């Protein structure tokens, strides 16, 4: 029997577990999917926006995988705690696949970034996703104008949540405290700002287009910003033709919005381009505005500063400039890329494959792509692991890794514990007159996993 630990139960971890059991090279594989949280599904539960119910429903597919009899979900086990480092894991399992994701946000590196009222978009996402480590801050209180820095899909998600009325989110599983705060929100202007042009924005067209379908928000684009984009203005059309299809589609959408008159809705999302943040400005101890330098295309896909500046008022700033991987003690790490060095998914130590250690997902390739991108990524890693399986199976490992985890101080939450959390969230929703509502704190989650009702 080949015993494999998969560290992380987000999409990359679950697709790795699936690829491990859906193969015929090694007939007898047992997989433990370990997660730091008592809940599975990673960013599908704690990252996908609550109003994206279709993507959220991917949880049903991931659940089917985790219910396979050869796979065990084991929550509330933090790798790195109670002596459970990479070395110890190799004593418990023949192979370990790290699917750790990219847990932190990238930094802007400008003065004022740490002012009260300035947050990473990941913190805001964690808040409305009920992540148990999320700050209890009510984010939107007192803000009228918000600036979202970055023009990727995370920026679109947070801008959309800010621009939706609380009533639009009530049918979702958004936690009750966040819903109450959003109901009191006075945010009327949401500025989403890119340092390059609309033809270089990172969002996907479906996500972008959705902004104009919000019932209580207008979308506005400054024609002057568009006019700076060579793909928009080049009379020969060559610059436009050279763009990938997604960027051409995005430009079409943005051009349509620039031509459209406002419809007088309660809130407005304003897309801005060619503005590079240089400082967050303070008033009364909190962020009050963002100072941007106007940029211009440098002819090589980047931008250069122009020495002209513009300020946008903001009592709330969300920095949506990408995620970055976090090193795990004892595992090699490329700090520049925020990933673990690998060859075909095999972890490299000093340039050579380390027997029994693998990576998949964002910690392998960086924080890019959509959820489905993790499937081929996981398959590549599992193909490498299966090539090595004959040698891996010879390594001596503990007979009962779960018992070993308990002995060293971990308090694992197995699959029935997670099902109890799900049931408690449904019950909580019923008491609040809503559908299932997420439990937002550690005591509540662990209590529910142990069968105690949520207070
Ligand atoms: P992203 O796609 O990499 O976008 C990051 C944005 O931040 C870019 O506009 C980037 O501009 C900008 N940026 C980076 N550093 C900056 C700086 N110092 N100053 C100003 N702007 C800066 O990252 P993301 O939005 O976090 O998304 C991560 C991944 O998750 C993506 O693959 C995304 O598609 C995926 N995702 C998908 C969905 C969905 O499918 N619904 C939802 C959320 C996330 P430059 O291009 O100029 O660097």
The CATH class of the largest domain = Alpha Beta
**Low-confidence runs:** none
Question: In the CATH hierarchy, what is the superfamily of the largest domain?
Answer: FAD/NAD(P)-binding domain
Would you count the extended β strands for me?
Answer: 19
Q: Please give the CATH architecture of the largest domain.
A: 3-Layer(bba) Sandwich
Helix count equals 19
Bound molecules: NADP nicotinamide-adenine-dinucleotide phosphate
Q: Which strand order does the major sheet show? A: 16-17-18-4-1-2-3-19
The CATH topology of the largest domain is FAD/NAD(P)-binding domain
Mean pLDDT reading: 95
What does the main sheet amount to?
8 strands, mixed
Structural class: alpha/beta
Residues in helices, as a percent range:
25-40%
Beta-strand fraction estimate = 15-25%
Distance between the termini: 44 Å
- Specify the overall morphology: globular
């Amino acid at each position: 029997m080949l015993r494999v630990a998969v560290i992380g139960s987000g999409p990359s971890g679950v697709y790795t577990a699936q690829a491990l059991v859906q193969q015929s090279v090694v007939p007898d594989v047992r997989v433990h999917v370990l997660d730091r949280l008592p809940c599975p599904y990673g960013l599908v539960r704690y990252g996908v926006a609550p109003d994206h119910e279709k993507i959220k429903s991917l949880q049903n597919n991931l659940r089917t995988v985790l219910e396979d009899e050869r796979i065990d979900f084991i929550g509330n086990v933090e790798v790195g705690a109670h002596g459970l480092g990479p070395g110890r894991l190799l004593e418990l399992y023949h192979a370990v696949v790290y699917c750790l994701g990219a847990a932190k946000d990238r930094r802007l590196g400008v003065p004022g970034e740490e002012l009260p009222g300035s947050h990473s978009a990941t913190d805001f996402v964690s808040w409305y996703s009920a992540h148990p480590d999320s700050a209890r801050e009510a984010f939107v209180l007192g803000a009228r104008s918000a600036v979202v820095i970055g023009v990727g899909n995370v920026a679109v998600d947070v801008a959309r949540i800010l621009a939706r009325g609380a009533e639009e989110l009530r049918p979702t599983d958004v936690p009750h405290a966040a819903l109450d705060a959003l109901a009191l929100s006075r945010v009327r202007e949401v500025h989403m700002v890119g340092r390059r042009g609309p033809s270089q924005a990172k969002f996907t067209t479906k996500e972008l287009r959705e902004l104009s379908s919000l019932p209580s928000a207008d979308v506005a684009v400054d024609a002057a910003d568009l006019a700076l984009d060579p793909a928009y203005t080049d009379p020969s059309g060559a610059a436009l033709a050279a763009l990938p299809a997604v960027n051409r589609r995005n430009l079409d959408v943005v051009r349509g919005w620039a031509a459209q008159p406002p419809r007088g809705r309660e809130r407005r999302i304003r897309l801005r381009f060619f503005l590079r943040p240089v400082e967050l400005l303070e008033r009364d101890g909190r962020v009050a505005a963002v100072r941007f330098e106007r940029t211009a295309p440098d002819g090589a896909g980047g931008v250069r500063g122009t020495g002209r500046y513009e300020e946008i008022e903001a009592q709330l700033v969300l920095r949506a400039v990408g995620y970055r991987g976090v090193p795990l003690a004892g595992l090699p790490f490329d700090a520049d890329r925020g990933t673990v060095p690998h060859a075909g998914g095999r972890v490299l130590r000093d340039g050579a494959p380390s027997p029994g250690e693998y990576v998949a997902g964002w910690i392998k390739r960086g924080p890019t792509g959509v959820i489905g991108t993790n499937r081929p990524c996981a398959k590549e890693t599992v193909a490498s692991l299966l090539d090595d399986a004959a040698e891996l199976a010879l390594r001596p490992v503990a007979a009962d890794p779960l018992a070993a985890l308990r002995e060293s101080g971990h308090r694992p939450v197995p699959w029935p514990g997670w099902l109890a959390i799900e049931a408690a969230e449904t019950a909580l929703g019923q008491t609040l007159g809503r559908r299932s509502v997420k439990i937002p704190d550690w005591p509540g989650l662990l209590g529910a996993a142990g069968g105690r009702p949520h207070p």
